[in-house]
Design brief:
Elements lengths: L14 H9 L38 H5 L3 E5 L16 E7 L2 E8 L16 H5 L7 E3 L5 H9 L3 E2 L12 E2 L9 E2 L2 H5 L14 E2 L11 E2 L2 E5 L4 E7 L4 E7 L5 E3 L1 E2 L2 E2 L1 E2 L1 E6 L1 E4 L7 E4 L2 E9 L2 E9 L7 E3 L7 E2 L4 E6 L4 E4 L14
Parallel strand pairs: 1-4, 2-24, 4-5, 8-23, 17-24
Antiparallel strand pairs: 1-3, 2-3, 6-7, 9-21, 10-11, 10-25, 11-12, 12-13, 12-16, 14-15, 17-20, 18-19, 20-21, 21-22
């Protein structure tokens, strides 16, 4: 699906971020190595054995650190909120689908019993989640073409139908279909293949001795315009997290809630992607997540303009700043916004978010 978009974003961050953005026009071949020194763009990716691969935090449960990742497709229709499990996922991808967004919540260090409500997959999931090492794929199902594509991929399909009653799936009586399907990760992990292994590390993480990069600019938060979903990620210094709100129908920000409070995360990665029509479902957009592009990283109270690169679907995103250095994330959970181009508007410290114009979609 081609989306026409007018030029935007009106940044209020001054000349520092403007210069950074200008520098982001160049590409980089930097790798995503947790052991790389700042500015090192030659080291190969490595996954330390003493940290959870999707968090970068010390392992407390070796069995959990060794198991495969489960990617659960979670509904984001207004009737599906609040969802269950979003704050327990190591990573969450938010992708544009037809007229809304959908989440791919990735569990590995811990699970969620239950998780949901669950909805259908998309062909764009195959590339988007390909770097997770043959992940288990938890979903409600899809049309014939999407199902055929998922089955032909390297995913372990543990969806509603494919699990044959062994995935802990059930329909909640508190909601109406199709917004009431849930599963249990404890049951889903019993369906792991014998040779299944953990995902590789997806990002490079900071250590206590790492200083903030010079390309990081302090922010109060950032507005991200997804498909009919306007997201505000606000920096909360007290918890050292970015917390999520969404503009409601009255154009007022309200907290995004999950089963255990407001949605929060240590890092937000925004990758600007081109969306085209899906060959399997012409009503659905399809994000091109292999190649090169630009975007932003929100981490530790700052925003960093980045270049991203993926040479193939099995590789994680490599994120480099304007100086060509691999961007180091804060250890902990990460949200990835698979966004339209030019869909971010940072908000300066002390500025009322209501006075910052939402990027056009």
């Amino acid at each position: 699906m081609a989306h026409s978009r007018r030029a935007l974003v009106r940044f209020a961050l001054g000349t520092v971020l403007v210069s950074t953005l200008a520098a982001c026009g160049s590409s980089s071949n930097a790798s995503n190595d947790t052991n790389a020194a700042p500015g090192d763009t030659t080291a190969s990716p490595a996954t330390p054995t003493n940290v959870y691969p999707l968090l970068g935090t010390p392992v407390t449960d070796p069995a959990a650190a060794a198991r495969p990742a489960i990617a659960c497709k979670i509904d984001n229709h207004p009737q599906a909120r609040p969802q269950t499990g979003l704050n327990k996922a190591d990573m969450v991808y938010e992708e544009n689908v037809e007229a809304l967004t959908r989440f791919a919540a990735v569990f590995q260090s811990q699970g969620s019993d239950p998780v949901g409500p669950l909805r259908s997959g998309r062909t764009q999931d195959i590339d988007m989640l390909g770097s997770l090492n043959k992940p288990m794929f938890c979903w409600s199902g899809g049309n014939y073409r999407v199902t055929k594509a998922i089955n032909a991929s390297d995913f372990n399909n543990v969806g509603y139908s494919a699990s044959h009653g062994k995935g802990g799936y059930y329909r909640s009586k508190d909601r109406k279909a199709p917004h009431n399907l849930y599963a249990k990760t404890t049951d889903l992990w019993t369906l792991a293949k014998a040779d299944a292994g953990p995902p590789p590390q997806q990002f490079t993480y900071r250590t206590d001795s790492d200083a903030k990069p010079a390309t990081s600019v302090a922010i109060d938060g950032a507005k991200v315009s997804m498909y009919n979903v306007r997201v505000y990620w606000k920096w909360d210094a007290a918890s050292s997290n970015f917390v999520r709100s969404v503009e409601n129908t009255k154009r007022v920000l309200e907290p995004s809630m999950t089963d255990d409070g407001q949605v929060n995360t240590k890092n937000v990665v925004v990758v600007y992607c081109t969306y085209v029509r899906s060959k399997a479902d012409r009503k659905s957009p399809n994000a091109l997540t292999v190649g090169k592009g630009t975007g932003f990283v929100l981490t530790d109270g700052g925003v960093i303009a980045v270049n991203w690169e993926r040479k193939d679907r099995l590789q994680p995103f490599t994120l480099t700043d304007a100086n060509g250095a691999v961007v180091r994330m804060t250890p902990g959970r990460t949200w990835v916004e698979v966004a339209f181009k030019n869909s971010v508007a940072p908000v300066n410290p002390g500025i009322d978010p209501a006075k910052v114009v939402w990027p056009a979609t």
